[in-house]
Design brief:
The complex is a heterodimer of chains A (about 375) and B (about 450).
Chain A (H helix, E strand, L loop, with lengths): L9 H4 L15 H6 L6 H12 L7 H8 L6 H6 L7 H14 L8 H10 L25 E4 L2 H6 L2 H12 L5 E2 L9 H6 L2 H17 L4 E4 L2 H15 L6 E4 H10 L12 E4 L13 H9 L4 E2 L20 H4 L1 H18 L2 E4 L2 H14 L4 E4 H8 L6
Parallel strand pairs in A: 1-2, 1-3, 3-4, 5-6, 5-7, 7-8
Helix pairs in contact in A: 3-6, 9-18, 11-12, 13-14, 16-17
Chain B lengths: L1 H12 L3 E2 L2 H5 L15 E3 L4 H14 L3 E4 L16 E4 L6 E5 L4 E5 L4 H10 L2 E3 L11 H6 L8 H4 L7 E7 L5 E3 L20 H5 L8 E11 L3 E9 L2 H12 L9 E7 L6 E9 L2 H17 L3 E2 L3 H8 L12 E10 L4 H14 L5 E8 L2 E10 L5 H17 L3 E2 L9 H4 L4 H14 L18
Parallel strand pairs in B: 2-4, 3-4
Antiparallel strand pairs in B: 1-2, 5-6, 6-10, 7-10, 8-9, 8-10, 11-13, 11-14, 12-13, 12-16, 15-17, 15-18, 16-17
The chains are: A alpha/beta (about 375), B alpha+beta (about 450).
Bound molecules: flavin-adenine dinucleotide and iron/sulfur cluster (2 copies).
Amino acid sequence: MKFRHLSQFEKELWKCGRCAYCVDEEICPSYRLIGFESGAAKGRILIARALLNNKLDFSSDLVENLNLCFMCGACKERCKTAAKIDTIKIFLAMRKESIDLGLYPEKLLPRYEKLKQFGNPFGLPKDERGSWAEEYNLPSKGETLYFVGCYESYVHSNIPEAFIKILEKAGITPAYLGNDEPCCGHLLIWEGRLEDAKEYAKQGIKVIEKSGAKRVVFSCPACYAAFKVEYPEILGIKSPFEILHATEFLANLIEQGKIRPEKEIKERVTYHDPCSLGRHSEVYDAPRKILRSIPGLEVNEMERNGRFSFCCGSGSGAITPILYEDFSKKIGKLRLEEAKNVADVVVTECPQCLSQFRLVKSEYGINVEPKSLIILLAQALGINIT
Amino acid sequence: MTEEVHKVLINIFGPRVTNKPIDLQAYSRDISPARETLASFVVKPQSTDEISNLLRVANKYKVPVYVRGGGTSHWAGWLPVKGGILVDMRSMNKIIEINEEHLTATVQAGCTWYKLEKELKKRGLAYLASELGGPSMTVGGSIVKAGGGPYGTCKYGLHGYCDVVALEVVLPTGEVIRTGSQAYKNVPPFDRFGAGPDLTSFFIGSEGTLGIITEVTLRVRPAPEKEEYLYFVFKNWKNVEKVGSLICRPFGDELAYTFYAFQDGADLENIHCFIHVYGYSSEEAELRVKKIKEICSRHGGKEQDSEPVKAMYESKWFLTDIFERGVWHFVGGSVPINNLVPFVEVWKDIVINKYKFLNCAFGAWPYPRAWLPYVQFYYKEPDEWDLIWEVTDVLTKEYVRMGMIPYRIGGPEGFLPYVKPQLNGYYEFLKRLKKFLDPNNILQPGILIDQEEEP
Ligand SMILES: Cc1cc2nc3c(=O)[nH]c(=O)nc-3n(C[C@H](O)[C@H](O)[C@H](O)COP(=O)(O)OP(=O)(O)OC[C@H]3O[C@@H](n4cnc5c(N)ncnc54)[C@H](O)[C@@H]3O)c2cc1C
Ligand code: SF4
Ligand code: SF4
């Protein structure tokens, strides 16, 4: 069948009543960049219908258009009050078609190759994955397992370190897979390489099950979204264990009085909801609860927050920064400027958002400091970490 | 020639012109069932000058130009039936000035009401009437169709009654004019009347055929201090008609902002009335509420918990579950304040009894001495396309025959075919005006004023 992935959504596509709730440059970074309605969900749905009706060819223009979508899910959120169309699944189906048609962007190949060869998208040695944890002697088996993910193992390893130190304060020692921890495959899902991603999902679930874990805590929201939402909803694979994000886990510990942030931190902060934690996984309150528990903080919301938070410019699968770096930075700049309007520190809990903000900050000299929420909490607990 | 036109457009608009098939496809539908229509180019102007240049070029090359704001209208009012260039006004979205003394807001025509409301709110101001068309509907789009929806219309009427002070318009041949007081050099847009006739009105309801609106100065007002919501259920439309008329009777000081009555096609027992009341003090609001309650009770209305009404108005930018029952089509328009009931009867006869099309609702809201009744159809595309055309064709013919003025006219798949025969000499007059302003019939050909069909 022509367009075998997209055709599964044919009925869904006809539900769009073209209200244009989703056509809004304040919420949709792709529409903001493309400027025409082909950049918004409404336009892509009309395009998808035309593909299925043989009125349009799957052109290279379309591939470019699809890869300029950040898969941030803001349109899906808007459509919840309209036709409840799962827009991003439709865009993903279109990306899958582009792979079937051999229109896969070549610039994404190196990352894919590295992932295959090294088990991480950076091409760094497999046996360095767990290096950050050497001094902590974490067990490989246990009821509560900590899943770190590629980004935080290799690039932002101060976050897992801070997390472990916080847990030490609560008297908790989680299990950790060390060098055996696989990539979650989240990037591949959003590239549309679902068959590859399935292998990662199966492998991940297998090694976690072997560890005897009943609950898995993730500090990387992309890995969390992969296990919690994307495996079951996109790959049809359910995990047999409880899945928690670190912010949920930590907010609980605070609520139970097991950790008490008592050190005053006099900073004006704002919280940026990462797409994978917010809209994709619907965790909005836990990070804010943590912020509220820290004495001395002035916490201000940006105008766009929660369900209608604006993307950092990296997007699900971090595809746009690779293919269209300038566009990606433009969006990051808008977001950082918005943060600057209300705060001196933009707090988030996503390694991709953090990297993106740091890049944009240095590129445009925007005076707002990106910071991990877990690290901020660690500091409020008197832990010496930056 | 297309290549040449493309080059010229690139000169004017740079990257803000497209002829990529995917981009054109994205602009192929409005919210009506009108079938897919494709332009050859879409452009996104950022200034009045660009629009002026565009229209001059279009005249030179005799290429049709269509214009849209948010594209959320539903009567084939901008679909490029003759191909050509489609102007998407949404990049002209600046708020130029909010003047708290004149009580005016001047915006570029592509500014959305959603954006404007946020800015007005910060200053304790509000605008007058509004449709419930969501975050993408633009000020320009609403004005040129003299729209109005169940929000504020009971008191302020349709757009153009009292909320438009002045316009900046690019005429079809490219000249720029400013209406109202700003017709005079260096005079701000504080008054609708400038020199000679009220030409602000001339463009209101013109559906884009007489010029492209680039700036709109609106009348705004201090936001009311108190808003109240009431919910009554009635059993017969005669009483609803009377209640609507009485609430609006203190002309100029109508008791409510909004009175909105509707009945579901699947429940012919109950008529639900949502009422939105305002006051510049609690006492004023209370007095209005008291009077409205008396009127409703006297006419058999049963008061309900007002929570759903409050919820609807508070979520007016994002009405909930709008396509839950299917996508939309509407047939409706204006009738005198004492002539609502026959339209209900015909809805029941044709839609409910003859076609058994229950997935619909009859709604109506009064505005100064008129009602705007409409039938809202929910249907499934593509399966029910033919059916929806057939039912609405029969209903529209009957409604127009009964004297309903369609809420706007649009193109061949809008109300145009039904309206033309009813307009007699007036239509010829419109054609003459159009010919004078747009000798090459460049702007919105086939919409509202059909020049091709000579009498
Ligand atoms: C959920 C929903 C609810 C709605 N509720 C209502 C309602 O309550 N009441 C109601 O009346 N409508 C309603 N509508 C319809 C629609 O939103 C309104 O008619 C709105 O005013 C259209 O604004 P727009 O900017 O989208 O106009 P468009 O659809 O872009 O254009 C409307 C007309 O204006 C012309 N035009 C647009 N901009 C210009 C310009 N700058 N210069 C010259 N001509 C121009 C176009 O050619 C077209 O003829 C609703 C729609 C939706 C999706
Ligand atoms: S919000 Fe949903 S129904 Fe409305 S135009 Fe966008 S995709 Fe279509
Ligand atoms: S997923 Fe985000 S970027 Fe993509 S269309 Fe939706 S709102 Fe725009």
